[in-house]
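Aim 2 progress. For Murein L,D-transpeptidase catalytic domain family protein, the working sequence is reproduced below.
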Amino acid sequence: MLNGVGAGCQSSVGEAAMARPPAAAPGALAPAAADSARAVVPDSLQLTPLAPLPRLSDSLRRAVHTLHARLGPAAQELRLEVLERACVGYLNLRQKGVVHRAGVLTVADMDLPSSKQRLWVLDLTAGRVLHLSHVAHGRGSGRLRARRFSNVMKSACTALGFYRTQDTYQGRHGLSRRLRGLDTNQNDNALRRYVVLHAADYVSREYVAQNGQVGYSRGCPALPPDQYRAIIHTVGEGSCLYLSGPGASSAWLNETSAAQRLAAHGWK
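Predicted structure tokens for this construct:
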């Protein structure tokens, strides 16, 4: 059984949440309170299948496959279907000028169990994994596997989709970086929910070794204490973060415009 270690993210009114299982959390949402923005998957280790993007051009698909191969063993757990979606969204966001940090893409596959390192910071132009780490999901999203996702205030759930990294500040968890959700009705409450990148003891190597998984946040993608500062600095302000998971959808997954952007500018 997981013990509460350290404080989680803050809700919209700033109360601290402990890294404890959803069933034991005071004020946890009852099943009947689940909102329409949530997607539910079975709590097992079988990953939810992802269909290939139907209109992805052969050239863009080859480019993503080549990138995946260049990333090497550190990206072994990063599924091609997840990387395809992350790259398509990144290219469209670059084309629209929403993200301005070229070549840096952060991907987290929240369908993987939290016992695995499931967050990658990628250098697209060099084809390198800059960081690979554990990452927490919200206590309202599930236990070992994240099963429920929500954009609703105080849901304590992870919200899927594309984010733009914002400015940093010094908070209760030390150095933290704000995140702006870019998918309407899916994660666009991120700033109001105080969803940020920050460190948490319940994502440490010691915690994982003792408990077999990381603990839970209030919806933030919380990071290991020995890696958070480097990750926060590497992603910088204005880069693209993609949180993938069951039921994720996005207006930024336009395959045609993404292929045009890649042909004209590469990964920059």
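The beta strands are 7-10, 16-18, 104-109, 119-123, 128-133, 161-171, 174-181, 196-197, 240-244. This observation will guide construct design in the next reporting period.
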